[in-house]
Amino acid sequence: MNLILIGPPGAGKGTQAKYLVKKLKNFQVSTGDMLREEIQKNSEIGKKILDDMSSGKFVHDNIVNKLIENILLDPDKKNRLIFDGYPRSLSQAKNLEHLLVKTDQKIDFIFFLNVTKDTIIKRIEQRKIVEKRSDDDLETIIKRYETYMETTKPVLDFYSKNSKFYEIDGSSKIEEITAKIDAFLNV
Ligand code: AMP
Fold first, then answer.
1. What domain count does the chain have?
2. Residue of 6, 58, 62 best suited for mutating to test ligand 1, as the one with most atoms within 8 Å of CB
3. Which has more confidence, 131 or 165?
4. Which domain range does residue 141 map to?
5. Chain segment 29-80, per-residue pLDDT in tens
């Protein structure tokens, strides 16, 4: 089963992805984590990624699409993917469609965790204390939220017509969101 989690930064995608990875024995595909790993390597591309990430901008589609392609082509991960933070733009959504066809896979569920800007700000300020991420200061949080709303809106429009698209109130408690996801999955 392949699944997509969509939602603004701080909506709880990562938390639910980790839960689903355990439950379904799938693989989490977090482009944010993959990009942070690239930064750790201190490569030229890593420096470019850091510039974009720390100012709240999206990393270029070409870079992210390449990371995703390697995962979709991995036979061990076939039909066992939980996308967390990808696709984030219409071009990424189209790239994913193309790769799914190419690798004979499909998406079984798309969960949109919908959360307001105020809730996001409160949550990320909390996360900053725990995780100490460089892109978690207030100005960057607001920029990331706005970038998300601007760029990911077309992705939502694209997927909301899909019969596998489910909207969930992301301001609920973690366990309540998990319970809703479980109910939709019916597994
Ligand atoms: P996340 O860990 O998913 O909150 O992502 C942190 C940051 O990584 C984002 O604010 C973007 O700068 C970058 N990023 C993560 N995923 C993507 C993506 N699919 N496309 C472009 N940039 C991304």
1. 1
2. 58
3. 165
4. 3-180
5. 999 999 999 999 988 889 999 999 988 889 999 999 999 999 999 999 999 9
Q: Are 9 and 62 in contact (CB under 8 A)?
A: no
Residue 134 has a pLDDT of 67
Q: What is the DSSP string of 47-63?
A: HHHHHHHHTTPPPPHHH
Question: CB of 143 within 8 A of CB of 56?
Answer: yes
Higher pLDDT, 6 or 147: 6
The fraction of the chain above a pLDDT of 90, given in percent, is 70
Question: What CATH number does the domain containing 59 carry?
Answer: 3.40.50.300
Domain membership of residue 90 (yes or no) is yes
Does 187 fall in a domain?
Answer: no
- On whether residue 172 sits in a domain, the answer given is yes
Rounded Cα distance, 175 and 34, in Å: 26
- 117 within some domain: yes
Spatial distance between the Cα atoms of 96 and 87, rounded to a whole number of angstroms: 7
How far does residue 58's CA lie from ligand 1's centre (Å)?
6
